[in-house]
Design a protein that fits this description.
This protein is of the alpha/beta class. It has 5 helices and 5 strands; from the N terminus they run αβαβαβαβαβ.
Length: 110
């Protein structure tokens, strides 16, 4: 809700019809995860919350070079950080967020 208050246009991708319906109930665009690749070339910012590999090198290649990736998922997260780095993408893993989530403990890599 906070991002939409700032005028951000958000799209949620999910597998579960229940999660898609919830996103739509908040007024967000919601698409099945199987359609995610079609959205990637237009993205400026991606928040990942999936704790399993979801954004590998194949998907990361579809992103614009100025897209920022923020991995909020538990464990190893869902973004291939090495692939992101090799492609020159900016990626912020969860471990680099401060405990308050307000600042970076280390710089973003590009």
């Amino acid at each position: 809700r906070l991002l939409t208050a700032f005028g951000a246009q958000l799209t949620v991708c999910a597998r579960s019809p229940k999660d898609l319906a919830l996103a739509r109930s908040f007024g967000l665009t919601a698409l099945p995860l199987a359609q995610m690749d079609t959205l990637l070339p237009q993205q400026q910012l991606i928040f990942n919350t999936v704790p399993a590999p979801i954004l590998g090198k194949e998907q990361l290649r579809l992103l614009p070079h100025d897209c920022l990736l923020i991995d909020l998922a538990s464990g190893a997260g869902g973004i291939d950080h090495l692939a992101a780095r090799s492609l020159g993408l900016r990626c912020l893993p969860k471990q680099r967020l401060s405990p308050q989530g307000t600042s970076c403990a280390t710089p973003l890599y590009r």
